[in-house]
Amino acid sequence: MNKKLDTALVLAACGFKVYPLTAGTKIPVKGMHGEHDATSDKATIMNWFEIDSSYNLALNLQASGLAVIDLDYHGNGINGVKNYSQYLMDHGNAYMDSLKTYTELTPRGGIHIFYNLNHDLGNKDIQLMPGVELLTGKVVIAPSYISEINKWYMPQYQGYQTLSRENVQPLPDWIIELAAYRTSPMAAQNCATKNIRTSPTRKTWTGKLLDELVQGANKGDRNNYLTHLMGKLVRTGANSDTIYNLLDYANSNFTSPLPDNEVNNIFGSILKRSGDYK
């Protein structure tokens, strides 16, 4: 009796689309097209295992109308199981109830949580939070729990409940909404913003100049401040109109700005002294 074939036929009878992998690996069979060859046709599946009874088995999630929450724990400091559990607890019983669905273990301490999917989320993996992904494309081992022996992947086909339509609940709306947010331009922008260094370890000359433009000065120091700033702006080689606008901007940051005629005098005096502007 071939437990792999039996499992493949049980999954196929539920309408799930399966495909073979090279024995002891997660690699598609040579000459085939991986998840693109997935089927629930009994004759095709039996023919695969007549060719090689040692094939591993995989699921095409998208074609099967399934989605999987993949919680990783690879010992790299990111614990998806912990992160996801805390997220559910923070959001209450309705979110905790989402765990009442078919679940499998992975060989390195991770978890695959299965759901029926009635939305087209495409064939992709969506990171929901560190160590937590929503899989809508493929799960390369069916069932997910495997033993790693000498780097060979040996699925455990005995002693476990089998995936079926009856023990899988619909993908909760809140997960769909979270996935939509994570793939939105706004989320990408927020992520990029978090990665911007707001306090460089070494401030450049330009950085210091920009700081001076906005920091202002005490009432008695305004003329000296603008004169000093004007000299720096001239040394940048910027257009005279640009320099004047920046000087005017700096003056506007004072609690009590200088009159326009005083700003104009500072501007004209430094500009004339530089000899490079007309």
Layout of secondary structure:
Layout: H1 3-13, E1 17-21, H2 42-51, E2 56-60, H3 61-64, E3 66-71, H4 80-91, H5 93-96, E4 103-105, E5 111-116, E6 125-129, E7 132-135, E8 138-139, E9 146-149, E10 152-155, H6 173-182, H7 185-194, H8 205-215, H9 222-235, H10 240-252, H11 260-274
Antiparallel strand pairs: 1-2, 2-8, 3-5, 3-7, 4-5, 6-7, 9-10
The average pLDDT score comes to 82
**What's the helix count?**
11
Strand content: 15-25%
Secondary-structure element series: HEHEHEHHEEEEEEEHHHHHH
What does the model show?
The N and C termini lie far apart (95 Å). The protein is elongated, with a radius of gyration of 32 Å. With 278 residues, it is α+β, with helices and mostly antiparallel strands. About 4% of the residues have low confidence. 41% of the residues lie in helices and 16% in strands. It contains eleven helices and ten strands. β4 and β5 form a beta hairpin. The strands form three sheets. The chain has a five-stranded antiparallel β-sheet. α8 packs across α10, α9 runs antiparallel to α10 and α10 runs antiparallel to α11.
